[in-house]
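[job 4471] stage=fold_predict status=RUNNING
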Amino acid sequence: MTTTRTYLMRHGQTLFNKPHKIQGASDSPLTAKGIRQAEIAGNHFKKEEINFDIAYSSTSERASDTLEIVYGQDKDYQRLKGLKEWDFGSFEAESEHLNPPLPYGDFFAGYGGEREADVRARISQAVKEIADKHPDQTVLIVGHGAAIAQFFKNVANYEGSFSKDLGFTNCSALIFDYKDGLLSIKVF
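[job 4471] inference complete, writing structure tokens
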């Protein structure tokens, strides 16, 4: 029986995060704080002697920049569209106060964005494919808060809502094992 340990981490703070702008398919660069958050995460992994065999990121610049700081700019990694953030349609780059109450469900699909179920299926499939490819390895994946929340909801059969107090903050990681086709959360 083989076990794949995966660290699914959110990117560092971005220019859009700072003024609370909706950021999904749109992208913005890491702030100085976001760079520092990624450096702290990378230092933590080194201190704890957590070594990654392989790394993946979303195709967004904020995710790949975070990964390069944490994992190392001289190391190869793969970027996957399946790991990208929820597309919020015409709400992209608008103020977060325009978000509807949680859960979002299919709200954004009516404005050119993605349905919740589609985001959940996409991110879950991408993570499963990565785990299937790397038995007995330790994997780093850098992605996005809403997509990671959807993955967690799928794996944990969690139907509640995440708030700013219970969610995936910048450079936090969801750690889980994948064994015999089953995912199990290790640390939240």
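[job 4471] summary: The CA atoms of residues 45 and 51 lie 7 Å apart.
[job 4471] exit 0
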